[in-house]
Design goal:
The protein has about 180 residues and is an alpha/beta fold. It is about 40% helix and about 20% strand. It has eight helices and eight strands; from the N terminus they run βααβαβαβαβαβαβαβ. α2 packs parallel to α3. The longest helix has 15 residues. The two termini are about 20 Å apart.
């Protein structure tokens, strides 16, 4: 099962050297197959995204994604872009630039729309209780979704312990995505 590490300012900080060091250590410990640079408030977003890419290139097999910014992902030669659920209209453009596309989804209809528009994968959330993310969908809902779609689905939301990873694996999701699991 694929592991999708998502960065956050709260853990990784926006201090470049600290960010780079922490990210490198988490890659060594957790060996994710996907990684996302995400920091909605960083005034030095582009510079830190560049440092994120430099760390990713030190690890064979990590697919690198930049949050929201299709042009920056392309410029930095990231594997792809992770779009928000308000960016469905960006899928075609990102694909035309040769980027893989992961998009955040929160309903079965959004997952099916993402699949129809050519997204490579989706995050579907929240599966478990996650701060500020609303009512969790649960594993049974995830299983129902997986019966309806062919797109790769990363379970997201509240995945912080190994038993949760095991439940997602048993549901046969493509993978799981998390911020807090990878601390």
């Amino acid at each position: 099962m694929h592991r999708y590490l998502i960065t956050s300012k709260e853990f990784y900080t926006d201090i470049l050297d600290v960010f780079e060091s922490k990210l490198y250590e988490q890659f060594k410990v957790h060996k994710p197959t996907y990684a996302l640079y995400r920091d909605k408030t960083n005034p030095n977003y582009k510079l830190q995204a560049l440092r994120f890419m430099e760390v990713c290139r030190q690890f064979e097999g990590i697919k690198s994604f930049i949050h929201m910014d299709v042009e920056l992902a392309h410029k930095l030669h990231a594997t792809g872009v992770h779009l928000t659920s308000a960016q469905f209209s960006e899928i075609t453009h990102a694909k035309s630039l040769g980027l893989e596309v992961i998009i955040s989804t929160h309903t079965h209809a959004e997952v099916l729309k993402a699949e129809m528009l050519g997204a490579d994968a989706v995050t579907y959330s929240p599966i478990f209780t996650s701060p500020g993310k609303g009512e969790p969908k649960g594993i049974e809902d995830l299983k129902e979704l997986l019966k309806k779609c062919n797109v790769k689905v990363f379970a997201l939301g509240g995945i912080v312990e190994e038993w949760q990873v095991d439940m997602v694996k048993k549901a046969e999701a493509y993978g799981f995505a998390s911020i807090r699991y990878f601390y």
